Amino acid sequence: MKEDLISTIPDAARLDRREFFVTSILAGTFALAVQPIAAQTKITTDAKNLIAGEVKIPVAGGEMPAYRAMPDAKNKNFPVVLVIHEIFGVHEWIQDVTRRFAKLGYLAIAPSLYARQGDVTQMKNVQEIIRNVVAKVPDAQVMADLDATVAYAAKNKGNTKKLSATGFCWGGRITWLYAAHNKNLDAGAAWYGGLMPTERAPKNPNQPTFPIDAAKDLRVPVLGLYGGLDTGIPLDSVQQMQNELKKGKSDSEIVVYPNADHGFLADYRPSFNKESAEDAWSKVQNWFKKHGAI
After folding, report:
1. Would you say 267 and 43 are in contact if contact means Cβ atoms under 8 Å apart?
2. Is 119 considered catalytic here?
């Protein structure tokens, strides 16, 4: 039987009692660092028959903005999926993905996990985002904020007995870590998230653990989705992760798309690979169904 996660939130969230104040950072625009947008391939998911928009989630020290989308239906508890944003924050593409899940029947919610540290959507390049924000975001804070997001969903038409998480790039790494942190998850899907420390992303006091450290003790089944052309996540690190997963009992799997690069699901970027993206999106849906997340 699943634990009552809501009752564990107060202790888990006591990371920093300093108050923080965040105005809306979820404007329906793309992050500056990813301009210009590849409009010819961009997929647009409308909000027809959905309830969609910004909500505020109580967390340690304040309120965290999030983008929430769910079916426009009364008196229902919807399965919950956490949508964990890529390095560019909760910009328009993450909001679109959230609506895609809502169209499938989920209460999908994408919390702004950088809210205390800054608005990355207005930063002009990846180096600035990493230096000024990402490097300053503690994993422990992220885990507690995701727990708070689950608690919010449970109180707002979400059925957290059917709970999944999916994340992209930065959020892919976080998906692996949250699956290790929250054993109440039914399933996870990690899209091209870093698996082990690199020169560009070393272990540090804010990010002391990587997915490969947790792999053999993992209990939540996670589907990893990686690109064979992704030079930032070499195939030997993917193989090492697969070897570690085999030592455990999570039944996690990793799929590598040989002709895909990093960000292959991101239809607004040149890295988009239609064939790989469609196959992977289908696999995620089946993975969540297989493991009881919907």
Report:
1. yes
2. no
Number of domains into which the chain is organized: 1
> Would you say 97 and 88 are in contact if contact means Cβ atoms under 8 Å apart?
no
Are residues 193 and 169 in contact, defined by beta-carbon separation less than 8 angstroms?
A: yes
What order do you get walking across the sheet with 253-257 strand by strand?
A: 50-59, 62-71, 107-111, 78-84, 158-168, 187-191, 222-227, 253-257
91 catalytic per annotation: no
Q: Give residue-wise pLDDT tens across range 111-166.
A: 999 999 988 988 999 999 999 999 999 999 999 999 999 999 999 999 999 999 99
Q: Which of 91, 86, 84, 69 is nearest to 25 (CA)?
A: 91
What's 189's domain CATH number? 3.40.50.1820
Q: Note if 251 is an active site residue.
A: no
- Domain hosting residue 268, numbered range: 5-290
Taking the model in full, what pTM does it have? 0.92
Residues 230, 261, 267, 291: which is the catalytic one?
230
Catalytic-labelled residue, pool 85, 91, 262, 291? 262
Contact by Cβ (8 Å): 275, 43: no
> CB-based contacts of 201: which residues, under 8 Å, 6+ apart?
194, 207
- The rounded mean pLDDT for the chain is 91
Selected catalytic residue, list 169, 181, 186, 291: 169
Tell me: the pLDDT tens digits for 153-210? 999 999 999 999 999 999 999 999 999 999 999 999 999 999 999 988 899 999 999 9
